[in-house]
Amino acid sequence: MQIEKFVDQFELLAEAHGITTAALLQRLERQDDDRPRWIAVENGRGIGVASASMTPDRKVRLWLDCRDSIAYQPLVRAASAAFRTDVYTSVSGSDLLLRRAFTAEGFRLDYTEDVFAARFTTAAVALRKARLPDGFSLITADQADGRSWFTLDNTLRQDIRGNEGWRGDLKWFAEHTHGASNFDPAAHIIAVDDTNGEYAGLVRFWNRPGASPRLGMLAVLRQYRGCGLGSALLARGVEVASTWDHERFTGETAREATEMRALWIAMGGTETDSRQTLVLRRGD
Fold it and tell me: Name one Pfam family in it (predicted).
């Protein structure tokens, strides 16, 4: 097996992803995607890809997409060697082969998120008493001021496990909201303090093609917590996402996030998997 740094081997890259070359080129152009990539090549065929990106928390994150597990460890080794800083990745708790490939190259567990699934009907019953507190209103993403929404998102992420040090930029934010293929502005809902116009919290659901809707974030600024604002946001988000013709929705929450875990359980949620964030510490 050979590991090739991607330059212009579009046919190999497409084969490794399991898509046509035309579809790959459209994806790269649409996403303005120039992240570094490495291709695993076996007998002249692309069988796996590793890609890396710098997220707004200034962390290098590594992603694998492989058609054969024999490509895992060689790709991890080649891609992680390209960086002198810490390198992060996320793997399903049920994917033991992928986790072994990363740990064999020195990656260690940073934290674990549990994946929950809940029925819309059960969640709606659990949230039926949620009421928007007096003095607040709810708006959707297409009604929001872009910079204020962006500032709220940046601030809220500071309290979310794994997002420490987050410093987003407007271009990245636009690409991952309005520019995302699974973005529905009606399901990105923002709470506004009517007394001063401050954006106080948000909930976002992603409408994923071929998969259950995903609760991507539910968060409220510290000074507004404890008044029921989070429950009101979630109730509205569940109401909107329930119109997407799915029985269930999913989401992840860190194991130490006890309040969010309790909310999932109250909605009848069950654990279906886990997501483990691994890190290769260069100081280790």
Answer: Acetyltransf_1
Q: Where do the domains of the chain lie, and which CATH numbers do they carry?
A: 2-106 (3.40.630.30), 115-276 (3.40.630.30)
CA distance 204 to 46: 36
At residue 166, the 3 state secondary structure works out as coil
pTM recorded for the entire structure: 0.86
4: phi then psi, degrees, rounded to nearest 5: -110, 135
Alpha-carbon gap, residue 183 to 191, rounded angstroms: 19
Contact predicate 26/63, CB 8 Å: no
* Alpha carbon of residue 55 to chain centroid: 11
**In this predicted model, what pLDDT tens digit does every residue of 54-106 receive, in sequence order?**
888 888 999 999 999 999 999 999 999 999 999 999 999 899 999 999 999 99
Degrees to nearest 5, angle at CA 81 with 60 and 24: 65
